[in-house]
Write a structure and sequence with these properties.
With about 100 residues, the protein is an alpha+beta fold. The chain is built from three helices and four strands; from the N terminus they run H-E-E-E-H-E-H. The chain has helices at about 5-10, 45-60, 70-80, and strands at about 15, 20-25, 30-35, 60. A four-stranded mixed sheet has the order 1-2-3-4. A hairpin with a 6-residue loop joins strand 1 (about 15) and strand 2 (about 20-25). The protein is elongated and about 50 Å long. About 10% of the residues are buried.
Amino acid sequence: MTAAQHDAISHSAFDTDFKHLRVRRLAGRIGAEIHDLALSGSLDDAVFGELRAALLKHKVVFLRGQSHLDDAEHQAFGARFGKTVAHPTVPAREGTR
């Protein structure tokens, strides 16, 4: 396969339904990777809406490279989806909910 063919296949794997996100389909009907998005509790509402839509559409999304999130910011981001609940069998870290 030539580099041009590889680029064409790679480009075609991107889901063009999203204006604010770069979403790459990973499998036939389930799974996507979202590129170039830094998560935070203060994520723009339009971007968050598309993130939620991508999750609903693809069922599973991967958001790599989020090492900038501390516990508080991670919890703030999670709260955008609704009430956060601690895992029932894993103790919460001190200072977290």
